[in-house]
Amino acid sequence: MARRGGRRGGRRGGQGNRGRRSRSSSRSSSRSSTRGSSRTARRNRRNARVAAKTGTNRTGKLSLKISARRIAKALANSRIAKGLGLSGLGNWAANKVPKGLKVNANLKTRVKAKIGEKNYRSTSANNPGGGVPQEVLEFYERYNPSGRTISEHKKIYAKNLADGRHTLEQVMRMNPAETMSYHALIDDSQDIKKKKLEDIYQAELGRGSDEAGAKYWLDTHAQGDNVDWDNITRMIGSSAEGKKFDARNKLKINQ
Predict the structure, then answer these.
(1) How far apart are CA 245 and CA 40, in angstroms?
(2) Contact 55, 124 (CB under 8 A)
(3) Where are the domains of the chain?
(4) CB-side neighbour CA atoms (13 Å) of 11
(5) In the predicted model, what is the mean pLDDT of residues 207-215?
(6) Taking CA 95 as the corner, what is the angle to CA 89 and CA 98, rounded to the nearest 5 degrees?
(7) Half-sphere exposure of 15 (CA within 13 A, CB side)
(8) pLDDT at 235
(9) Which of 185, 197, 194 has its CA nearest to residue 151?
């Protein structure tokens, strides 16, 4: 009888454990569920839409621990507080906040989805150059799943490339520890050139580049690896628009 009761008790105990496990799993599934009209489901659907649109995944947590007194003092010395004449009162109140009091915030971070991951977009920043055919994506997924770029490998082999005697392809082939083929790297050189040209436009003309102008400079003066950026800067700066912008800046300085 005792043994039978023990068995029953064991069964009941097991059932209780299974019940607890099922309840905890149901709670975790409800937190990630996108079905229904609950606030959690609506938030999950919204996050999924944002992730699909931006080509990102939410991963990890960014933990912030900030002194409450520091926050109060920053608010007291803000432009708005000073403009309203509340800075003195705010600083007095900030000094009343205990030193050890901290504000804890856990923020989820977003990272760009890589090739093969959920929400990856062929037009995202991980794959410069716009839409890419499916067979090309499959090639990268197989031979370059981490989405490595040419610029990243140029930094890795900077010492080997410094003398200019070998190309990146040759250096990678000569390194016995390198398992990746040069042809599997994503060519992001055009994006880097666009960024460099954008910086020149801002410095010399005070504005961003227009589509026609950027196409002209990239197609006629920024081909290949050895681009004379100093010459491009000089030509853009010596244009009629560049001279006007320079004159306006000098006038502001003299005032």
Answers:
(1) 52
(2) yes
(3) 56-112, 189-254
(4) 5
(5) 87
(6) 140
(7) 6
(8) 92
(9) 185
